[in-house]
Amino acid sequence: MKLxxxxxxxxxxxxxxxxxxxxxxxxTERTVSRQKYIKFFSEQKEYDVLFYGSSHVxxxxxxxxxxxxxxxxxxxxAGHAASLGMxxxxxxxxxxxxxxxxxxxxxYDMYAFDQPFMDVSFMHYSLDAYPLDRLKIEAVRDLLRxxxxxxxxxxxxxxxxxxxxxxxxxxxxxxxxxxxDYFNPYYGSEARYGVAVPMDIDRVPSDDMVEGSEGADNYIxxxxxxxxxxxxxxxxMRVPYPAxxxxxxxxxxxxxxxxxxGIEVIDMMYDxxxxxxxxxDNDVISGVDEDQMITDILSETGGDSAQAAGTNEMQQNAxxxxxxxxxAQAAGTxxxxxxxxxxxxGATANNGKLSSTVVDWDTDLVDPNAHLNAxxxxxxxxFLGEWLKRVYGFTDKREDPDxxxxxxxxxxxxxxxxxxxxxxxxxxxxxxxxxxxPEYETELQVTEHYQPDExxxxxxxxxxxxxxxxKYREASEGxxxxxxxxxxxxxxxxxxxxxEPDASTLTTPVARMIVRLRGTGxxxxxxxxxx
Amino acid sequence: MVFNSxxxxxxxxxxxxxxxxxxxxxxxxxLLLTSYWFYMSWNPRYGLLLLLFTVFTYICGFALGKYxxxxxxxxxxxxxxKYDSRSESDVNHVKPYQxxxxxxxxxxxxxxxxxxxxxxxxxxxxxxxxxxxxxxxxRKGILTFALIVxxxxxxxxxxxxxxxxxxxxxxxRLSITMPVNRLDIxxxxxxxxxxxxxxxxxxxxxxxxxxxxxxFINYALFVSFFPSILSGPIGRAxxxxxxxxxxxxxxxxxxxxxxxxxxxxxxxxxxxADRAAIFxxxxxxxxxxxxxxxxxxxTVIYAVEIYCDFCGYSTIAIGAAKMLGIRLMDNxxxxxxxxxxxxxxxxxxxxxxxxFRDYLYFPLGGNRCNALRRYLNIMVVFIVSGLxxxxxxxxxxxxxxxxxxxxxxxLLLPVRTRVLGIFGxxxxxxxxxxxxxxxxxxxxxxxxVTATSGIAKSGLVDPGMTALKLLRIFVxxxxxxxAWLFFRAAGLRDAVLMLKQIFCNFGAxxxxxxxxxxxxxxxxxxxxxxISTGILFIADLIKYHGGDPGRWVxxxxxxxxxxxxxxFILVILIFGIWGNAYNASSFIxxxx
Lengths: 531, 592
Description:
The complex is a heterodimer.
Chain A: H1 2-28, H2 32-42, E1 49-52, H3 55-58, H4 63-70, E2 74-76, H5 84-94, E3 102-106, H6 120-127, H7 134-143, H8 149-156, H9 159-162, H10 171-178, H11 214-230, E4 233-238, H12 245-261, E5 265-267, H13 272-278, E6 284-285, E7 288-289, H14 290-301, H15 311-321, H16 327-337, H17 374-392, H18 404-424, H19 428-434, E8 440-446, H20 454-462, E9 467-471, E10 486-489, E11 509-517, E12 523-530
Parallel strand pairs in A: 1-2, 1-3, 3-4, 4-5, 8-9, 10-12
Antiparallel strand pairs in A: 6-7, 8-11, 11-12
Helix pairs in contact in A: 2-6, 4-16, 4-17, 4-18, 5-7, 5-11, 14-16, 14-17, 15-16
Chain B: H1 6-21, H2 27-40, H3 44-86, H4 111-119, H5 125-173, H6 191-206, H7 216-224, H8 226-229, H9 237-245, H10 252-285, H11 292-323, H12 341-347, H13 350-364, H14 371-389, H15 393-411, H16 413-422, H17 436-439, H18 442-453, H19 463-488, H20 492-504, H21 513-516, H22 523-544, H23 549-554, H24 558-575
Helix pairs in contact in B: 1-2, 2-3, 2-7, 3-4, 3-5, 3-6, 3-7, 5-6, 7-9, 10-11, 10-22, 10-24, 11-19, 11-20, 13-14, 14-15, 15-19
């Protein structure tokens, strides 16, 4: 009896402690990983496509835009600073929840010298949401081989680091911890806001490549094999970014390996110019002439917006999009057409410099050497959507009642989230960039102080006919903010000013931007830019 | 492997379970094996050093024991011869030497029969005296040799570079250019503790307080017992070794008490000490640009930190040992309730203080000599104590300060007594022996005094006396805390510069909560530090008055008790500073 009592006593303590740890973990955990995966786990139907890779993918495409314009279901499973090894393990974890028709892996940094090394703090983002089980233990052991037990423990039992966040617990964080109502509204993606222009980079010839690395090769082959074993089609992609010479050489190596493996690479930095010159039959992949394919898709989706046509042409195209064609299609493809080159290819002579057939370096990057901004992601999403439709034959499910939740999420989750982000922006170029989304129409009132630079000019062109530029007249007694207006600084060069200046010290209005939702006319943002 | 590491959380339960499963005869062997594993997890080479050191001291102890036994026989024979020459009947009054473990020698021959045998050898009396003298001199020689080796080892690992630095500095001052390179010496962790423990063992054999341990496994375990090898408590052989002779069975109550002690130790270390360390480390690392007020605050918090850190370690060690059925000596007894510096050293790091008292202070003459010599003895003990803590001048100054405090207290006693007399206090109010309520719990003192002299308890609870006691506690804390500044500073120069900051750039007007929050602890963490220190204060207060909070918890009804224990564990898990982000900070006393 005494023994039983003691055993019960121990069990009781264990129960109390376990319960306490569970609660403590929920209360103190960083919810960003859980929020990323909530929608992914809860989706009842299989996805068409799942995207894997690093932050280039995370900020480089929007599944909701692909859905809205092409009716293809997808989810962005990329992670911050995720190594190739991490993508491999995320694939294995994710396949236990969903088997997509296609898995797409970004080739950026596959041959990083210390694969699969990555910062442990970023690993949490990709792994925390997955439950502790054998596969996760295997993943952590592999990704952190040779690293300390403490680091491994931290990933397997995130409470070991998150418990120190007890002093950050707020009413809001408690709500987020215990509710599934707080989730990533971008279906795994993270939109980035800002506009930056990179330096010119020489394009590296396709036969100039780095030595292979056994570790990376194994992960690449492993990724392909896991997909094949699961009956999932696999392809690689190269999300546009100003790749350094070393990165290009590494990517050329991946291209070669992909060719060996018979894996298609959706290359959004494809050397159209070089390919045209060579006119090489070897460029035919999966029975599709890639050069022609890119040309065709760009003519459908817009492409090199740097070569955008004049406003009159845009307006003409916009008018034609309202003449009875599929309106949903018009909202996407036709809008991009507005910006298409007159010859429809989007490809221009680049004098041996690295270029993208999909994005414009001047307007579509958030930082000068890596990531796409929200509008760049929008362009990539449209390009990918068209590619997936044409090459993989994904059907449009927008009218399918089984996928009504996707339409609902687009309207009730994705657009409101974009609106909130729009409201929060305070940089002039960023506002111009984000309001270029086809969901918005913009009224820009400017004073005599307004002097658009080349980037602003391009961004304005991206709006097509959805922008009206007029004159902004100050009140005679000086500048006064109207209700709902936000006073922002005006940054002529598009550079981040660091700490936001005190609007009260800036008194000369330069422009007023009113952004409205198309269709409803609801004002999303009304900002006055001062200098 | 430190106590607050994942490794220990796996290691200890495994050790404990197997310990109670294996046959009783193998318990010590299992403990020895795991102790070496524990110790070698720091550096496998240390294990070899520990083994060699253990073998050496074992042999020395054995040799000392051999001559001691011979001495006993010789002494016995000599006495009996003398008695026999005076009166035959006096033989029955001969008291043979009784060691701590019995009155019979190894052959089983009783002292009386031995005496009878000796009676027939009267003629050999002179020769016996000679043998005894030779024996004593051999023992002295062995002990001297052993202690020289032991302390040379300590000096080599701990003070070689200190010495070289000072020689180098001195030569530089004398403008003599001679390159003096530091040696690449890695000090084995816990060396100061197990060396002192072994030295105490050898001295105890020499003093014939105990026989030498013949079982090598038991002796090796005495040296390397994993709960105490790194930071003590420094065990005493006469109380520890006999415990290893007895088999230990699983005792639920004892294991529960040990477990609770471990939890309390973890609370002190992880919730209080490591949290306080964030603030203290930031202030002490950047004191150049910090107001003196923050340095004062950090030094006060450091007093809490070092107490919780070291007491935390000792408590975990005592708890772990208790769970294994071994009783280690208490190392702390409410030190910050001390009414004098002398009182403080009876309550702080008791195992080391008592070691210095028994093996250094008493041999130097202790209190039984003239005042000047006594003061010299005190200074020697405290300077050595400072050196023991670290090979830096700041530690020596810290030790010297504690010695000076005590000498000053002694010198100023007449003045203090006279001043107190003005306020109506008794002449003996400062004498802790004659006035136990001053140096301890009023309640306990009342109980004691009431029992012996019939004085009512109320007579001891005098408001004036309480006020005096609180004042003394406060003054003692200030003195001790001032010395801690030298102890914590990176070096003597830093300590002096910090004092300069305190006196020349105090910045009282800048002292604000926001200013304090800029040193790594935000408001919530500060609040938690204050609350948890308050819990420690209450627990110490209960202990000071003879209570036992741990026993109180264990005596609660089952559900409530389990709930309290679980809550305690969760408090440590959630509010403790642990996990990969903090790199499992080590205990301060590991470096000594």
